[in-house]
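Name: Large ribosomal subunit protein uL4m
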Amino acid sequence: MTSVLISAIKRLHISITPPLRLYSSNVTVTPANTNLTITRKEWAFQPQYTKPREVWIENLDTVEEQKLGLFELHPSVYAASPRIDIMHQNVIWQRKVRWVSWAHTKTRAEVRGGGRKPWPQKGLGRARHGSIRSPLFRGGGVVHGPRSGKSHFFMLPFYTRILGLTTTISAKLAQDDLHVVKDLELPTDEPGYLEELIEKRNWGPSVLIVDDTDYAPRNITAALDNLPHVNIMPVYGLNVYSMLKHDTLVLTIAAAEKIEERILRLLHSDTRQQQRAFQLDQV
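Structure predicted for Large ribosomal subunit protein uL4m:
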């Protein structure tokens, strides 16, 4: 019976090969019988307690999704613990930084009229008043009312902002709303092609595309002109509010590497000297 099973297995011609992994590094390995490039990555700060996260590299040159390989992400950046409170603090900070209240009320000195004393100081048995534009009178000035041009700016702590980025990116990856693409090259500049691609891949009604530079290919910039629900930005503009505003986050390989490199460097470096120059007196 054993010999029959062995001979049957041999006739199947089963070849066991290790799983394909695509990293970003200078060391490149090309396996046999495949056209994928497998590269090994050496991080400056190796993960200690958690395993790296892996995502498929997708393409944009066809509407149908094609898996080009696997890309490994550092768990300190893309697998951080979920902190809804940190995300909320970042959103409030971003909304208040650009909020200027223009509500304005007039004081008793700015209200029209009320120049003379309404009645004599003594002799009538009435309360003492010097102007009918006093806050006690109808039509008078307002005490402690809002004054126009009031800024609600405040500075969020540095590492709270960094943690907000890692938490939001990790939440996007955990919810399968983060996709990594090889590049942003499109075969056409028609908006319909990009709309069909987004619908075919179930990327949701709104998409945020992030590249490592602010020089995007012409086809994708022309296609996005008529798609208000699809936006593109460079790595240096990535923020918590924009990521939460869009359903899907699409990163290029270069953008994912740059985000990972910058955040890891900030998480493992002493930045107190650099932060001291930007400290504000918020008393």
